[in-house]
Amino acid sequence: MSLTAAEIAENNARHATRMARKKAVIDAAIANATDEHGLLIVITGNGKGKSTSAFGTMARALGYGMKVGVCQFIKSRTDTGEEAFFGKLPNVEWHVLGDGFTWDTQNREQDIATAKRGWAVATRMLNDPSYQLVVLDELTYLLSYGYLDNDLVLDTLANRPDMQHVIATGRGATDALIELADTVSIIADEKHAYRDGVKAQPGIDF
Ligand code: ATP
Ligand code: MG
């Protein structure tokens, strides 16, 4: 059934009132948000989209000419689309610091040594204010598997340069990391093509 002209006018007026009210609330919230400092953002959960979220934010930062450091822990592959694209940009420093998945290495001592070597690279960036954004891809596993001294990692993150942003990704973020973070998103695994037998594809999964 089509609406009369009067009903359309009434709907439009109601919509305008609702939007004016919403704008007032949003403007007040924006006016309140005056603080500015580097953020610790954690992207966790079992769904797809953690690393790609970090790389999306990285593209945004690079658009402003910011200097970005990337540490990829755990995984060892260097043939990813993200590295091929971002890795050769002048403002990007890209490090692949993994040895492969822990179920591949099957060697905890080796995993710990690798994690410590990787964390040394990250620490250098987290002590240097010239890095405006640092991406710590898959950091969560280094904490949840106990490969690194959790307190040391959290201290280093907490004491980084004031304006430096950090994005940490990976499943199962620890409570302490979530507590320290400014922004936390938990990506839910509603569906994944993998479970329908679709293999990982270049340009989408790596
Ligand atoms: P992406 O890098 O695509 O954003 P991610 O960082 O959220 O994924 P990881 O745990 O790092 O997820 O997994 C890396 C690889 O595993 C990617 O190829 C991704 O597509 C795939 N993947 C992510 N989530 C799932 C899932 N729930 N089931 C199966 N494979 C997944
Ligand atoms: Mg990932």
TrEMBL record:
Alphabetical GO biological process terms: cobalamin biosynthetic process; porphyrin-containing compound biosynthetic process
Coiled coil as UniProt keyword: no
InterPro entries: CblAdoTrfase_CobA, Co_AT_N_dom, P-loop_NTPase
EC number: 2.5.1.17
Catalysed reaction equations from the record: 2 cob(II)yrinate a,c diamide + reduced [electron-transfer flavoprotein] + 2 ATP = 2 adenosylcob(III)yrinate a,c-diamide + 2 triphosphate + oxidized [electron-transfer flavoprotein] + 3 H(+); 2 cob(II)alamin + reduced [electron-transfer flavoprotein] + 2 ATP = 2 adenosylcob(III)alamin + 2 triphosphate + oxidized [electron-transfer flavoprotein] + 3 H(+)
Entry GO MF terms: ATP binding; corrinoid adenosyltransferase activity
Its biological purpose: Required for both de novo synthesis of the corrin ring for the assimilation of exogenous corrinoids. Participates in the adenosylation of a variety of incomplete and complete corrinoids.
Assigned GO CC terms: cytoplasm
Pathway as given in its UniProt record: Cofactor biosynthesis; adenosylcobalamin biosynthesis; adenosylcobalamin from cob(II)yrinate a,c-diamide: step 2/7
NCBIfam families attached to this UniProt entry: cobA, PRK05986.1
Pfam families associated with the record: Co_AT_N, CobA_CobO_BtuR
Family statement drawn from the similarity comment of this UniProt entry: Belongs to the Cob(I)alamin adenosyltransferase family.
Keyword Glycosyltransferase annotated: no
Keywords: ATP-binding, Cobalamin biosynthesis, Cytoplasm, Nucleotide-binding, Porphyrin biosynthesis, Transferase
Organism of provenance: Sulfuriferula nivalis
Cross-referenced Gene3D superfamilies: P-loop containing nucleotide triphosphate hydrolases
Compartment(s) where it occurs, according to its Swiss-Prot or TrEMBL record: Cytoplasm
Protein name: Corrinoid adenosyltransferase
Catalytic class of the enzyme: transferase
Main location as per UniProt: cytoplasm
CDD domains: CobA_ACA
Domain Cob(I)alamin adenosyltransferase N-terminal: 9-30
